[in-house]
Amino acid sequence: MNNYKKKAFIPVIQKTSTLVFLSLLALVCLFISLQNRSIEISPLYDSKIKAASLMKQCLQSLKKSRLENSVFIDIENDPNETGLVGVPYSLITTDEGDLDAKLTTLDPNFSAVIVDLLFTAGLEKNDTIAVMLTGSMPGANIALLSACQVMGIHPIIISSIGASQWGANQVDFTWLDMEDILIENKLINSRSVASSIGGRNDMGRLLSPLGRDLIIENIKNYDLPLIRENRLADNIKKRTDIYNEYHPIDKYDGVVNIGGGVASLGTSFNYRLIPPGIVNRSDIVDIDNSSGIEGAFSYFLKRNITGLHILNIKSIIENYNLPFAPIPHPKIGEGVLYAKERYNLTIVFLCFLILTGSVAFIGYKSKKQIREHLTKYEPDSLL
Known about the structure:
Layout lengths: L1 H5 L9 H20 L1 E5 L3 H24 L30 H7 L3 H12 L7 E7 L3 H14 L2 E7 L14 H10 L7 E5 L12 H13 L4 E2 L4 H15 L7 E5 L3 H4 L11 E3 L16 H6 L5 E4 L2 H6 L20 E5 L1 H33 L6
Helix pairs in contact: 2-13, 3-5, 3-6, 4-6, 5-6
């Protein structure tokens, strides 16, 4: 009894040496798991790097052009000083716009995202795609053209020139002006084959007569066919006819829409339910379009031509862990878009078993010690 009083009973689970052992074992297991991870480089790594680098060159070329014309860059609304963020209001502004979404598409890494999406959609070198652009997201337009150039994909482009807030909505710097600068500097080799005014009904409704005239003059300056029929439905049909003139509709390998152009998406509110990213015919069959006019984008989709819908930018980049409206732009080549860390799950599982098994064994041994101790010294407590 005296020995019991002199020496306190401490089960093994409460001993400092045991806790130190478990801590060291956990650290060893963690170290082994980390040492057995690998870096999985994207199979599209080279193409993504080239596309992002080309887009960066395009952005620099356009910025240089703006600075040469003594254009002021608003660093509050254009914090990365790209020179490609438009203004809140102008004569050719068609609608409200999401500034953060447009800042996000001006990240050169967005072109690497487009490369990934085009590849996932099954597109490859020498394929021909129908492309529907607006002036609302020049960053996304440049990202797509850079990706197509690197991948050897041939785009047939029809653009609407009116733009929402913060896009290519400055009368002296429309999307066609940007496109021309990039062609002149031999950075891209694809340009629009026809253009429309854009905006409501694809004919500039809600713009002033002067605003519409400025857009029409801009289109004529580049000797492009002006799509301006009597009704929206006729404008849409004219678009599909032009696409068919350049390449038979059923021979297109894909279709890409950037922005929310009414001629592309149609007038039905339900067509706003088209998911961003890769779209197939099955994604639109349940969308009711009885109350509106079918757009050119769904015209292609219903012919089993795979589509790429670039809208709702935040949901697209979240799949690649890219930041929304980043300041500054992330470095090209970094992040899961280019490479992913992979852990050896077998090693991780074995480490988990060793660690949990050790804890379970020590817990079992301690319970046994406590029971033996109580049986010997405090039998009444077991009743």
